Amino acid sequence: MNSAYATDGQYIHPSILNADFMRIGEELDRISSADSVHVDVMDNHFVPNLTFGAAMVEQIVERSPIPVDAHLMIEDADRQAPVFAEAGASSVTFHLEAAAAPIRLARELRRKNTAVGVALRPATPVEPLLDVIGEFDMLLIMTVEPGFGGQSFLETMLPKIRRARAAISESNLQVSIQVDGGVSRETIERCAEAGANVFVAGSAIYRAHDAAAEISALRDLAAAHGAHHNGH
Ligand code: DX5
Ligand code: ZN
């Protein structure tokens, strides 16, 4: 299991979806104090938007001072996700809705030495996944409909985070819970309280004048509101 996503910590993952793509190297440097860079891969089929492919991810891995967390919003995850592990992503998250054999895929990705995440759209229930959650290093609970940055946080996802955290704790598993979409200074505390420990923030960080200050503000808020879930 990849220790980068053990539940004994909290992690801030800026999403480069709202970065200036013409200056991607400098945009990566702006967030070098974060834990990982979250790269949103979209194929214009699973979501109505198109972003990066594996060649771009490989270049980001080479250039980035911090690990790459690839969030695949693409169809046919079974065939495509391994390509992103080979591109050097430290973690690869695929959507449950896009995988025919999620457990087989998770095992294949782990053999490629990447941490594995499984993502759920807001309307996908978490319960069917809970019996097999130990197959994954991370559960991504989307807090907006995937596809675009800058949308508002779906408060209705908080009970889902809470139920998932309770089930993971009951089984004594080390599975991180990532939240993605509308995470900001206004919403991160509630996510941490509910049991999330990996926080993706796109517009909140890239629209800030001082990205490093925003990262540390988010980190402090998460730490102040979520530590009790991790036994610290
Ligand atoms: C949405 C993406 C998110 C997005 C987050 O489909 O998965 O990672 O970039 O952006 P904000 O933080 O602006 O909602
Ligand atoms: Zn994402």
From TrEMBL:
GO cellular component, one term: cytoplasm
Protein keywords: Carbohydrate metabolism, Cobalt, Isomerase, Manganese, Metal-binding, Zinc
Active site: residue positions: 40, 180
Cofactors demanded by this protein: Co(2+); Mn(2+); Zn(2+); Fe(2+)
Classification via Gene3D superfamilies: Aldolase class I
Domain of life: Bacteria
PROSITE patterns named among the record's database cross-references: RIBUL_P_3_EPIMER_1, RIBUL_P_3_EPIMER_2
Protein's job: Catalyzes the reversible epimerization of D-ribulose 5-phosphate to D-xylulose 5-phosphate.
Name of this protein: Ribulose-phosphate 3-epimerase
Organism classification: Bacteria, Bacillati, Actinomycetota, Actinomycetes, Micrococcales
